Amino acid sequence: MTDHYDPTDSTDTRNHIRTDGGRDVVELPDQVELPRLLDFYELQTEETTEIAEFYDNLREGQLTTTECQDCGELHFPPRIVCPECQSDDLAYVDLPHEGELFAFSTVRAGAPMGMEDDVPFVIGIVDLGEITLSAHLDDAEYDDLSIGDPVELKIVEIDGPVDHERVFYRFEPKET
Length: 176
Known about the structure:
By secondary structure, the chain is mainly beta. Helix content is 5%, strand content 34%. Strands 1, 2, 6, 7, 8, 9 and 10 form a seven-stranded mixed sheet that branches. A three-stranded antiparallel sheet has the order 4-3-5, covered by helices on one side. The longest helix is centred in the first third of the chain and has 8 residues, at 52-59. It is globular.
């Protein structure tokens, strides 16, 4: 167990973001006060999730999701069974790396576990055409954003208390 978080301790570096070879890396603590099941970022290996291909694709720089080969429904997040027709004949398809803001807000309190130290931060709904998804918006301030602003995919590595690499997607304002 680690000591409790002291908000007055300026040396605390939990969830610090650093750059490593051009890709941002989110650092998580070496030890976690809470049970492993409460980690915001899921385990991403074939042994731990049936959507490991989604994370493998992210590691390769591609945002993907599943499409049902029987009824044609596109799903996000990726599924192992189609919620429309219950088929398990799903294939991974590429999603755009660019979209536009449908909605956004600043999280100032009540952040998910593991993100309490990141507040305030901007969260948004990103319209990618056929898919609309929620995402953390990096390098963004609420007052600088507008509905319809262009955003682009940003993949971050997740450091933390597990023995394999993890990644996750975020978006950031697109430079115009």
